[in-house]
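In response to the reviewer comment on reproducibility (Comment 2.3), we provide here a single inverse folding case reported in full, input and output, so that an independent group could reproduce the run without further information from us. The structure tokens appear first.
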């Protein structure tokens, strides 16, 4: 039995809504994963710096954190 055009339109609209919701959820999950990688990278770098002597210690900057976070993300996704 074929669906009426109205029923098919409703089903198509529900499918579009669900696809949009899934895409938004995937984007939010991706951002959450990146933020978590940044948090972990910062914690690791701070802890590694804390365990060094004053002569060996260097300042941690944004590039250090983002590079380490990118390495973490690449490792997890591989």
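Designed residues, in position order:
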């Amino acid at each position: 039995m074929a669906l009426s055009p109205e029923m098919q339109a409703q089903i198509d609209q529900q499918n579009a809504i669900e696809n949009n919701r899934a895409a938004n959820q995937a984007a939010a999950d991706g951002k959450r994963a990146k933020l978590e990688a940044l948090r972990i990278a910062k914690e690791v770098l701070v802890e590694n710096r804390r365990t060094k002597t004053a002569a060996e210690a260097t300042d941690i900057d944004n590039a250090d954190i983002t590079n380490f976070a990118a390495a973490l993300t690449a490792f997890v996704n591989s």
